[in-house]
Specification:
Elements: E1 2-6, E2 17-21, H1 24-38, H2 44-53
Antiparallel strand pairs: 1-2
Bound molecules: zinc ion.
Length: about 60
């Protein structure tokens, strides 16, 4: 199952988007993007929370 993550959905004016297989790697890519492009060092837990707050179920990738 793929998950589409758009940076703009998380409050940035930014065209960055990830549309790929749902995985912890995908979350880490988004996290790295926030840090590298926007200078915000979120924890992976914070990013996970933001995505689940958008209504995406991430249960399948949680340990
Ligand atoms: Zn961005």
């Amino acid at each position: 199952m793929t998950l589409k993550l758009r940076c703009v959905d998380y409050g940035f004016e930014c065209k960055f988007m990830l549309d790929e297989e749902k995985s912890i790697t995908q979350l880490e890519k988004l996290r790295d993007h926030f840090e590298e492009e926007h200078g915000i060092d979120y924890t992976i837990e914070a990013v996970t929370q933001m995505i689940t707050n958008k209504g995406h179920s991430l249960e399948s990738i949680k340990k």
